[in-house]
């Protein structure tokens, strides 16, 4: 089955989508507020005009309250110079005067009587497909009650609002298109530094890992990215250098025993020899092959450890007992070289993998024995340190290791000085394995050396790695 992974949107589309959304929402809100404000202004304008109409009608009604004809004539002349205004007067429930042939009574029957004419008290209705806005007022003159219906044709305002809305929509649409074009150009220009970084990155090859991106030529927002990329290049360069050295070192380490085996075998086969000579040749070849086997085994273990294929099994460990059992194991070798093994101090029990801890201590002790002159002492000191940690120090007397070597002493196949190797049974991987084991237990290891001794110190947490 083929899985289709959805491609993420480009930065340009993301920005344009955000700008379009934000601009669109802003335009809708602004246009609604604008139209609402204009419509409210029209309502207030109608309220003022209706107020003038009502006052004029009341004034006309007071001129001839007893003479019907004169009263109607006064009402016909009450409003002049106003367009689209209508009024209807009822006296005691009977139509008294209407400014037009439109009957406003049916739609206004249930309207409340208004005393104060404001924008909020106006009513709207439709009559014969036309819209009106108006009010109903009452006035009493000489025991006659007049019901006044005042109305204004609102279709004129609605027509203006419709055209205005269309014009605003076209203007806003054009503004939106221009804004998106400007935003697109802005994004393109804003991404120019990224395109420059891309060109610089394309220039970097395996033979140019010392190149670095220029932090001063990019905007401040991209400086953390450039800094992280430069740090990544530094780590890659260091790893590439280590890998190159490792390849050269492993070739050298494998070549020496293989050359010995081939040379000795060729010499042994060059002529007929005694059985004892062939046995000695086989023993010599066996020694070199055992060294090769140990080297391959150590390299395989390191590779598994780096890829998380080794799962430590944690248990309670008494370090003093472990060190003492290793002393018993190395006792014969130490006696041959008249080296004294001494242990002092004590620590709390720790949680760790017993086999791995024992392997690390074995490597350190065997390394110390190889580099300790005859008649000297190897001291192991156990102490409890701060922050629930324990310290293990292994000190051997001997020549000094220079500081520049101490920084790389835990690298694979790294040799300080061939003259320090009095025995040829080392593979150059022991200290690298020690560091890997210590780090697997969330501990640290470091080395220090002075004019008469060298000390390796391990710090391990009492409770082991945090779960």
Structure description:
With 467 residues, the chain is an alpha+beta fold. The protein folds into three domains: 11-162, Beta-Lactamase, CATH 3.30.450; 220-306, Helix Hairpins (Orthogonal Bundle), CATH 1.10.287; 315-461, Heat Shock Protein 90 (2-Layer Sandwich), CATH 3.30.565. It has helices at 11-63, 68-76, 105-108, 155-190, 192-203, 223-269, 275-306, 319-336, 354-370, 403-406, 430-440; strands at 85-91, 94-98, 123-127, 130-141, 144-153, 315-317, 340-345, 350-352, 377-385, 389-397, 444-449, 453-461. Strands 2-1-5-4-3 form a five-stranded antiparallel sheet. α1 (11-63) runs antiparallel to α2 (68-76) and α8 runs parallel beside α9 (354-370). It is rod-shaped. The model is unreliable at 418-424 (pLDDT under 50).
List the helices and strands and how they pair.
Blueprint: H1 11-63, H2 68-76, E1 85-91, E2 94-98, H3 105-108, E3 123-127, E4 130-141, E5 144-153, H4 155-190, H5 192-203, H6 223-269, H7 275-306, E6 315-317, H8 319-336, E7 340-345, E8 350-352, H9 354-370, E9 377-385, E10 389-397, H10 403-406, H11 430-440, E11 444-449, E12 453-461
Parallel strand pairs: 7-9
Antiparallel strand pairs: 1-2, 1-5, 3-4, 4-5, 6-8, 9-10, 10-12, 11-12
Subcellular location: Cell inner membrane
Transmembrane segments: 12-35, 168-188
Domain Histidine kinase: 249-464
